[in-house]
Amino acid sequence: MASTLKIDPQRIKVVSPYVGGGFGSKLAVHAETILAAIAARRLARPVKVALTRRQIFHDVGVRPTSTQRIRLAAERDGMLVALGHDATMHTNRHEEFVEASALGTRSFYAAPNRLTRHRLVPLDLLPGEDLRAPGEAPGLLAL
Fold first, then answer.
1. pTM listed for this prediction
2. Residues 137 and 83 in one domain
């Protein structure tokens, strides 16, 4: 914020008592924060930002949509010998973000042959970013 507003970082005070755990989409500075600071400067008084739930989904980024493919190979006795997990997800054309959906799959089963891949499809959608659960969560659902 200091860099964008060209002010000393010591002069910035953010008060947000309801931030919760402070994880996910609250990790980064978004447009509403900068706009509130500009408004406070112009008005010479404090400014409070309150977004509706609907506005949040259009302002702070999203969990990338993904298509996932899981492949398993086993011996006749059921012992896994191969495991594959491909995750294809959207990314914003101007701001690349990869969610590690297939990462957890690497450690869940003892198959000697494992392959995990992440592929990105650039689209004109909101940028992806961290949300409530770690990026592995959608992959674990698929697995």
1. 0.73
2. yes
